[in-house]
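Justification of resources, computational component.

The compute hours requested in this renewal are based largely on the per-chain cost of generating structure records like the one below. Each record pairs the submitted sequence with a full structure-token output. That output is archived, and it is also reused by downstream analysis tasks.
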Amino acid sequence: MMKHAKQHYVPGFLLSRWEVDKKVWRYSKPHESILIEPSSVRSCAWDMHLYSVGDTQNKDTYIESEFLSPLDNDASLALEQIENDGLPSIQDSRFALAWQRFLFAQLYRSPRMVALSRARGRHILERNLDFPDAEELASLGMTPQQHIEFAKTIPNHSYDDLGVQIMPQLIKSPRAHSLLKNSTWVVMNFDDEVLIGDHPLIYKVVDSNAYIMGLPIGPNKYFFSYKGDLFKQILSQDKDVLLHGLNLGAVQSSRRMIVARSRKHDQLILNNFEPRDPVHGLLKQEQ
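The structure output for this chain reads:
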């Protein structure tokens, strides 16, 4: 197997925090009923060549190998610093930017978002090739017929790769990171067990003065970055009530699988887990 071909959309270092004896409880629904099984982290939340570009015979895994894998490594070190030395230590350290980028990466790296990015990239490229700007063609010294011939030389995979290729730039967006930099960071500990799904990031924006981002970082912990009294009040409510809402949201937003440390929340998951295929779901929305 090509190195980096197996690509995790929920990082292994994060899921490993739910391990007991090197196993987690994985809930999935490959057929009619929900399958509950002990599983290794390596077998959870991955696709082959999810972020790879190029044709089927010559896949390039640079987004995984040169961007996401190093980012996950730095984020794991940042999380260790958060737990060992507290939040103020990371906010003033070289790991702050890595942690911010890691959080935003969770917005873009899920199978559904990758499929959406590929579809949008294809649409943009096809539209620009089908309806070229006359002034732009003239500035390039290209006639409409030359443009048509040029379009024929573009490999088919390039249409699908465009949206994925801009992922690193989106994750590194200075504007996005300014939101985190100017927000309040907090780690909340819970008595009950935290669930983590395959869309683990909570991201709600009202406006530039009211937003929240949250990520489960352990079987009893959440990280939050927020701004505004609305979200401050939400986080100040009874912890048991808050965690129930967080766990319910994790289950309902998951499209393929949920990971737990134990089977304590079987009933919550069985009653609320409705997996959806990210590609077919996307196609229905796009039509």
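Confidence is low (pLDDT under 50) at residues 278-287. The beta strands are 6-8, 24-28, 35-39, 46-48, 184-189, 196-197, 202-207, 210-218, 221-227, 257-260.
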